[in-house]
Design a protein that fits this description.
Length: 209
C-alpha cells in the first residue's frame, strides 16, 4: 500500500467527516452525549498532525502509530475502540503477498479487537452493526468478485447496517440508559464507520482507474 494513497485516504476521510458534522453531532445528541463528532474531529486532526512522520515508517508502522495516537487523543468510548482497530489492523496488514487479502486480514483483526475491547457483538446498536456485516460480505466476495463488485457490496452492507441500528435496542454504550427511547434513532458510531468505509472505497476505485 503506497504512502501517498494512505495520506490521501486520511485527508478524504477528514473532509467527509467535516462535511457530515451536523448529522453526526445530532445523532449522538439524540442517543448519546453529543460528542461523537468532536471525538472524531480530534482523532482526525491528531492523525493529520503525524503525517510528516510517515516518511520514515513502514506501512504496518504507519497504522500502528495511528492507533497509538488515537488512544492518547480521542476520549469517550469510541477512542479506545478505533485505536485498538488500527493497532490490530497494523499487525496483519503485511501477512500475505496480495494487497486486498492483507486489507481483509487487517480489517478482520481490527473488528475482533473492537469486539474484545467493547465486550460487544452484533445487534447491540453500535459501530459493530456496520463493521461486522462489512467484514462478512468482504470475506464472502473476495474470492469470486472483482474490486468494483466487492466495494459495491461493502457499501450496500454498510448502508444496511446503519439503517438496521434504527430498530435495535441499545445494549452497549451510552444509549443503553435510554432503553426503548433509543429506538427509531441511528447509532452515531455506525454512521461514522459507514462514512469512513465509503470514502476509502471510493478512493480505492479512483486509484484503480
Ligand atoms: P461516548 O459514547 O463515550 O460519548 P462517542 O460518542 O465518541 O463516545 O462514540 C459513541 C459510539 O461508540 C456509539 O455510537 C457506538 O457506535 C460506539 N460504542 C460505544 N460503546 C461500544 C461498545 N461497547 N462496542 C462497540 N461500539 C461501541
Ligand atoms: Mg458520545
Amino acid at each position: 500500500m503506497n504512502k501517498q494513497f494512505i495520506i490521501q485516504c486520511i485527508n478524504n476521510v477528514v473532509e467527509e467527516i467535516r462535511y457530515h458534522e451536523d448529522q453526526i453531532e445530532s445523532l449522538d445528541r439524540a442517543i448519546g452525549d453529543g460528542d461523537h463528532y468532536i471525538n472524531l474531529k480530534r482523532g482526525c486532526e491528531a492523525i493529520q498532525a503525524i503525517i510528516p512522520t510517515f516518511e520514515k515508517l513502514s506501512t504496518p508502522q504507519i497504522f500502528y502509530s495511528i492507533g497509538v495516537k488515537l488512544l492518547s487523543t480521542i476520549g469517550g468510548a469510541s477512542g479506545p475502540l478505533f485505536a485498538s482497530f488500527f493497532i490490530e489492523f497494523s499487525k496483519n496488514i503485511a501477512s500475505s503477498k496480495n494487497e486486498l487479502t492483507n486489507v481483509l486480514l487487517g480489517f478482520e483483526a481490527g473488528v475482533e479487537a473492537i469486539k474484545k475491547r467493547g465486550k460487544s457483538g452484533s445487534g447491540e446498536k453500535t459501530m459493530l452493526d456496520v463493521l461486522i456485516p462489512v467484514l462478512n460480505i468482504f470475506k464472502k466476495k473476495i474470492g469470486n468478485s472483482n474490486l468494483d463488485e466487492i466495494i459495491h457490496a461493502i457499501n450496500e452492507a454498510a448502508n444496511d447496517g446503519v439503517e438496521a441500528t434504527k430498530t435495535m435496542l441499545p445494549t452497549k454504550g451510552r444509549a443503553v440508559g435510554l432503553g426503548d427511547r433509543a429506538i427509531g434513532h441511528i447509532d452515531p458510531g455506525a454512521k461514522s464507520c459507514q462514512l469512513i468505509i465509503a470514502t476509502i472505497g471510493k478512493k480505492i476505485l479512483e486509484e484503480k482507474k
